[in-house]
Amino acid sequence: MIIKYLPFLISILLATPLYSAPLTPDEDLSQSDIMRLGEQMYRNGVLPSGEYMPAYIRGDTEVDSGAFSCSSCHLRAGLGSYEGGVVTPPTTGRKLYEPYRRPPSLGDTVDQTGRYIYAKTVQERPSYNRTTLASALRFGVDPVGQKFNDVMPRYPLSDRDMTILIRYLEFLSHEPSPGASSSEFRFATIITDDVSPEERKALLNPLQNFMDRKNQQLALYNDYIKFGYIPTAEMKYAFRKASLDIWDLKGDPSTWRKQLENYNAAKPVFAILGGISNQNWKPVHDFCESERIPSLFPITDFPVVSDTSWYTYYFNKGYAQEGEGAAKYLNRLIEDADTKTVLQVVQDSEVARALASGFENSWKEMERSPIKSIKLTAGELADNKTLNKILSSRRTSVLLLWADAETLPQLKKTLSRLKGRKIIFMSSGYLGKKAADISDEVRKNIYLTWPYRLTPYIGPQTGQFDARVPIVTSVKDFGESRITSRTVAMLLQAALQGLNKIYDNLYRDHFMDVMSMQMDLTVRDYERLSFGPGQRYVSKGCYIIQLGHGKNPELIPRSEWVIQ
Amino acid sequence: MKISELNQIICCIFFAAVFMFLNSSEALAESRSYKRSVEKYNIPDISLVNQNGKKVRLRSLLYGETPVVVDFIYGTCTTICPVLSAGFVNLQRNIDTKGGSVRLVSITIDPENDTPKVMKEYLKRFRAKPGWDFLTGSRADIDTVMKAFNAYIPDKMQHYPLNIIRNPKDNSWVRLFGIMSSKEFMEEFQAVAGKHKK
């Protein structure tokens, strides 16, 4: 027994210089230092010294806190999670310094064929104080000696480091976020001035409908109570007044931030629901990131593509996702030796640049040799002379043609200049409905990126009614902005789930945490929406398709939804 | 010896004793905190993609002279997967120290998100050594593999801790449900693989 736990015991002996000393804040550290260093420990598993926090599971299994930290399970807001059969309880001071009690659950007594709640919380415990909390983190026991599940690491921290971590936990999710109260949620949506009246209406109708329904449900709920109905303790959290402000952004995008700051100062909101712009979303993204405001699923083809941004959920990476799809398909198609025969032609437009950027980032990620890329104006592409000259001067077997539908009449000539495979990739989004104009004789050589659902969808089309027949995708759907259906999906599935599950924990970070822990969703526009901690582009797929014959051609998939 | 130093030693001994007591009482109540069974699985003949973006035939990877341990994880998991992976990294280290060999195979349950890049970064984060592969593929193929190991879950949020060790001698698999200590994991591995040398 002693040998089994020897690593942990040695760590404790080394790391506990003065454990009997009372836990007091370090006098040499300011409050902001404590928060910074505590956040570094909590989120990244890094001690103030710069070393990784030592941690042990089941006594002898050393865990690298750089691989997973407190926030991995307790999440950024510190209010815990339920995932993989593991219930992770809250770890904020506010929750820890009060008694805890939960109702009994099935998982307490029944082993349901081995797929039960593997690790659940204790049913009851008294409040922690700083000393018992330090003991819990070191030894995995609560104030009355109940032992934690083995998935919770034990941390042999020094007194100083322990003090910093505990002080951080005391301030974590301490004050409710602006825009939310026990009786009301305030939301906003963002619309830029390039959006047409039709697009504006397509966004606002479902949003306003959502607010009306929430407020109507609240009225019904209040009526029930008047007539003597006694709700369960959690039920009230599903019924709150909701309001929606419209933050119209005008003029040059460089002025958007100031406008957003003014809106937010005048009437702060808990979250941004949806939104729409035909311009790059970056100024809004950056504002939400710096102000820590959740922004849920704006309708944009130009999202910020980032691995580290936190506060904006996107449906996908927009045009960049189409470029990425082409890269992944091409990666399977050609060997390294053939890379020199690939040419990327990029029209001088924001759409084409986004497509090319998606392709190049993904290509680089797959560690493939760079490909030749040239930029041409719309005029150069339309008369085709420049492109023909370029193609004549080199051997090209695969052409990535990120250009609009004006180039379609030239496709046959362009194709004739290709050698070998003779494949041209184009974007369905950029071509739009005019993709149907691609002549039958070249269709076998044209591969299109398609980041939407291809399999028939049976279910509510807009949330208003149940479709009687499967909704089948066709070339007529190319270029559709899908504003209403996507906004409905965002509201009725993702946002509502998140809002209902935060209960009385009115913290924006917790809302983001809850959103990220959702199960996968089936919606009209995408094959699958999948979530996960840190995942911010919930639709990950993009088909590569070809067109069949005729004016309303069959859409023939040449790849899976997600290409690996 | 200063009083504070004496105080320190007494405290350390006290907490070490508390910790040992807590764990020894647990050991008396429950000798093993995981479930063990011996199974036969029919591995599908499919190809998946590893962390380097290379296609690998699953049977070729699993059927060999070297003992294999399989688990199901995903790159952004917050709870079970990091714990399982900590077990993998410790097992790999322990076997390496003893001069043995093992092939570790993690199969994603989030093929939508787990690209070779995500998987490679995950292995790097855990300081995995060569011999530990992380595989992804189409959802259909991943579902097929999960079903073959009686480990199918329709959604990654429903997953559970599972390690499966293949015995190369008789092609049986030891299925271990739950979280094991490094010592327990090593004992289970050795019980299956014997003192397998490189």
Report the uncertain regions of chain A: 9-23, 109-116
| Poorly predicted parts of chain B | 18-30
Shape of chain A: globular
Largest interface: A-B, 65 and 64 residues
Oligomer: heterodimer
* Content of β-strand of chain A: 5-15%
Q: Tell me the structural class of chain B.
A: alpha/beta
Overall average pLDDT of chain B: 85
Task: Return the domain count of chain A.
Answer: 3
CATH class of the largest domain in chain A: Alpha Beta
Rg of chain B, Cα atoms, Å = 19 Å
| Overall shape of chain B | globular
Structural write-up:
- The complex is a heterodimer of chains A (564) and B (198).
- Chain A has 17 helices and 18 strands.
- Chain A folds into three domains: 6-171, no CATH class; 184-318 and 457-533, 3-Layer(aba) Sandwich (Rossmann fold); 320-450 and 545-557, Response regulator (Rossmann fold), CATH 3.40.50.2300.
- In chain A, helix 7 (197-226) runs parallel beside helix 16 (483-501) and helix 10 crosses helix 11 (350-365).
- Chain A is α/β, with parallel strands linked by helices and 564 residues long.
- The longest helix of chain A has 30 residues, at 197-226.
- The model of chain A is unreliable at 9-23 and 109-116 (pLDDT under 50).
- In chain A, the strands form five sheets. In chain A, strands 13-12-14-15-16-17-18 form a seven-stranded mixed beta sheet. A five-stranded parallel beta sheet of chain A has the order 8-7-9-10-11, with helices on both faces. In chain A, strands 1-2 form a two-stranded antiparallel ribbon.
- With 198 residues, chain B is α/β, with parallel strands linked by helices.
- Chain B has two domains: 1-31; 35-193, Glutaredoxin, CATH 3.40.30.10.
- In chain B, 41% of the residues lie in helices and 20% in strands.
- Chain B is built from six helices and eight strands; from the N terminus they run αβββαβαβαβαββα.
- Chain B has helices at 3-29, 58-62, 80-97, 116-125, 139-148, 182-193, and strands spanning 35-39, 47-49, 55-57, 68-73, 103-108, 132-135, 162-167, 172-177.
- Chain B has a six-stranded mixed beta sheet. A two-stranded antiparallel sheet of chain B has the order 2-3.
- In chain B, helix 4 (116-125) links the parallel strand 5 and strand 6.
- Chains A and B meet through helix 1 and strand 2 of A and helix 1, helix 3, helix 4 and helix 6 of B.
